Amino acid sequence: MNFTELKKQCIDRFFSRTNEQQRKAIYQTKGAVLIIAGAGSGKTTVLCNRIANMILFGSSYNTEFERDINSEDEKFLKSFAAGDEEVNPENAERLSMLLGYERAAPWKILAVTFTNKAAGELKERLQNMNVHNGGEVFAGTFHSACVRILRRGIEAIGYKNSFTIYDQDDSLRVIKDVMKALQVSDKAFSPKEFQAKISHAKDKLLTPDRFPVYGDGGRVDFKLEKAKEIYTEYQKRLKAANALDFDDIIMKTVELFEKAPEVLERWQKSFDYIMVDEYQDTNMAQYRLISLLAEGSGNLCVVGDEDQSIYRFRGATIENILSFEKQFNARVVKLEQNYRSTETILDAANAVIRNNTQRKGKNLWSDLGEGEKIQLHLLQGETDESDFIANTVMELKAQGECFKDNAILYRSNAMSRSVELSLSKSGVPYRIIGGTKFYDRKEIKDIIAYLSVINNNFDTVRLQRIINEPKRGIGDATQAEVFRIAEGLGISPVEVMQRSEEFVTLSKKSKALVPLGNVFGELGQDTERPIDNIIDDIMKATGYEIMLLTQGDEGQGRLENIRELKSGAITFMEENEEHSLSDYLENIALITDMDNYDAEEDRVVLMTMHGAKGLEFNNVFIVGAEENIFPSYRSQLDSVEIEEERRLAYVAITRARKKLYITHTRQRLLYGQTMRNKLSRFIGEIPNKDIELTDHTLHTAPVQTAKQQKKPGYLQQEARHAQIEKIAARIAAAHAETFTAGDRIRHKVFGEGTVISAKEMGNDTLLEIAFDTKGTKKIMANFAKVEKL
User: Fold this and answer.
1) Bridge partners, residue 407, by sequence
2) Which residue of the set 233, 278, 306, 385 is catalytic?
């Protein structure tokens, strides 16, 4: 047996727990690689093993080379290939020395994940995979990686490296202040809408001077013009406060790389290999960032699934993953074997997503067996629906399932209310992912604000939050004067407070301002000491502790939350070598809701379908599978939005391991009105053979007329109405009017136009129409009721 053959056998044995397609992805280390990882296909396993391969063996597997080895080493290799030697750290090191070629240093690998939790798990798994120094891989989210880059170079674009990171509330506060200063009414215009427009602009790397102000008709849009003014002033205020909002973190890193080529070159040389997870959810700014970094080595591997691209509303663009192969001349590896779900669940998911056009194409399969049919339940209203879910969860519990094995998924948070009531009434423990977060509690935000001002004396937004908390008699006028003087003299507001006796307009308030300014000054002298000690000092020196002690039970509860904050700070210091106050605040700013998700807590999980991405449960309930809810009403005239909604359906279906329950009601009270919606088109796309229908309205039938009650078979006929709806839709589609390019049509809203193209999609037809007065639009023929002229 020659060396090349023996080498491959040994490496295959080392990664023998992976399948053939996974190993193709693991061994392809050089150049650009696109890994299309279907739901439940072992993506994390591939990521970890690919990094392990780069560290242990480098590009050895796919590189032809010879190496002289002695008889003892040859004997060891043959023994390992045959399975007679264990896979352990000692043997891994020996194999690496004998077979490695162009091995990667762990610290020269950048692995970008979408949550801090995923980054931590990746490093932990590497350390458990017999990979020496695996924990030294640079693994983190886009934002955590960018913060590290900015801390070491942001001075090149005019910021101090002690910058503060503003959360959504801080950002909104600045926008409201800007609107007030520019005399833009917050009653006529929503501050949150301006915040969203600024965020989307930053996702696209649009600076204030490049912010578009023209509407669809080519004329200046008044609201966009105001948004540009607000964006311009907003950025000025952030820079004056030495602060970045969440979107700035990536945008400013790109700006740093483009304006300081030497900084970019330094970071390009820092990474020989770059891997990006969840690439389908990247936006334009993230794409640009990764492209710049990858220009150095050219070794870029992205992992994702275009069928799970569901964050368009956050600025993500599916085009990033769809165009990657061509743009980077990448090799493509598809992972289609699913290790999570039954064949029936996958059959349903495949059938639904097949109706989309924006996809690379794949077909998930499993060897876990056919499993149970998908349970479709028709109920009278949302109360019956919720009671059914609670009762089913209790039945599953009686059969030996844990509460944590169940997830209830809905399209919007507003739909959880009724489900929560039924679960509480039945004594079912539950938790809501995406509810009030620990770090959003008032007392926690207050203490973090104190810490932030200690760390960055220019942080006007955080200072504004706590300058009069507890009450110190420092009103709005005094606060405004502090900030005005600070801006005029180019000094921090904290220094103005300390020197307030010097200023005529502040001297009367100096008894309140000076002590607080001195607290910030004194506590800021040593920010390297234990963070829990700094929190204790804040509580005592500011009077915050005394304030809570006078608030009875509510105050006691808030004190307990602050003690929990201290516990988290202690844990942070124990787990991180770099644990200064600045490091801690950075960590807090980048925490996401999913980072706090504990899969071991035995409670039913309630969350939106978006929130469920990346998770899996034995039993999944999809609530409200109805037109105008899922898909949402606003998405139904836009084919791009419909495809996004269909991807969301695919994500929801593929969360289930064993059982999938789908509910649909005859009528639903939602958003203050009673709705009567048809069964969701996505359920109609699931093959009939995979669904079992149960009609609960047989026992809770709506009020009928005497004439209806006398009709034979009335209830039996009603029991089949959901199935009839599906069948009727398919028959209607078969007999529906057909359209071809050149047809003249009429639409009830957009008027007359000419069909440019027509493409069948499921039970409908996607039409691209050039309207005579409304421009070109893509719409669904059946839903929009387009008629030929």
Assistant:
1) 605, 620
2) 278
Buried b (16+ CB within 10 A) or exposed e, 543-565: bbbebbeeeeeebeebbebbeeb
Give the span between the Cα atoms of 33 and 27, in whole angstroms.
11
Q: Which of 7, 24, 43, 197 is catalytic?
A: 43
CATH 2.30.40.10 fits 737-788, yes or no: no
* Catalytic residue from among 44, 127, 232, 337: 44
Beta-bridge partners for 302: 34, 276
pLDDT at 436: 52
What pTM value is reported for the model? 0.78
Is 21-56+104-148+254-337's fold the same as 344-433+599-734's? Answer: yes
Residue-range domain boundaries for the chain: 21-56+104-148+254-337, 164-241, 344-433+599-734, 438-593, 737-788
Ramachandran angles phi, psi of 335, nearest 5°: -105, 110
Peptide bond before residue 631 is cis, with ω within 30 degrees of 0? yes
Catalytic residue among 308, 478, 636, 665: 308
Q: Are strands 243-245 and 33-37 parallel, antiparallel or unpaired?
A: unpaired
pLDDT digits (tens, 9 = 90+) for 521-530: 999 888 888 9
3-state DSSP assignment of residue 552? helix
Give me the amino acid identity at 258: E
Reduce the DSSP state of residue 276 to 3 states and report it. Answer: strand
Q: In sequence order, what are the residues at sequence separation of 6 or more whose Cβ sits closer than 8 angstroms to the Cβ of residue 698? A: 715, 718, 719
- Tell me whether residue 44 is one of the annotated catalytic residues: yes
pLDDT, position 725: 52
pLDDT in tens, 14-63: 999 999 999 999 999 999 999 999 999 999 999 999 999 999 999 999 99
- Active-site residue among 277, 586, 627, 690? 277
As given in the structure block, the two tokens for residue 607 are: 């969350």
Q: Is 655 a catalytic residue?
A: yes
The ranges of the chain with pLDDT < 70 are 435-437, 592-597, 671-672, 698-737, 760-764, 782-785
Q: Which single residue is written with the structure tokens 């870029």?
A: 300
Note the pLDDT of residue 735.
Answer: 40
CATH code of the domain occupying 164-241: 1.10.10.160
Angle at 339 between CA 328 and CA 81, to 5 degrees: 80
> Among 3.40.50.2300, 3.40.50.300, 3.20.20.110, 3.30.70.100, what is the CATH number of 21-56+104-148+254-337?
3.40.50.300
User: What's the alpha-carbon Rg for the chain, to the nearest Å?
Assistant: 30
Residue 75 is a catalytic residue: no
Q: Is 437 a catalytic residue?
A: no
Is 278 a catalytic site residue?
A: yes
pLDDT on residue 601:
86
pLDDT score at 761: 62
CATH superfamily of 344-433+599-734: P-loop containing nucleotide triphosphate hydrolases (3.40.50.300)
118-128: burial string, b at 16+ Cβ within 10 Å, e else: bbeebbebbee
> What pLDDT, on the 0 to 100 scale, is given for residue 706?
38
Set 655, 666, 681, 726: catalytic member:
655
Please confirm, yes or no, whether 277 is among the known catalytic residues: yes
**From the candidate CATH numbers 3.40.50.1970, 1.10.486.10, 2.30.29.30, 3.40.50.11740, the one assigned to the domain spanning 438-593:** 1.10.486.10
Strands 300-304 and 138-141: unpaired
pLDDT at 764: 63
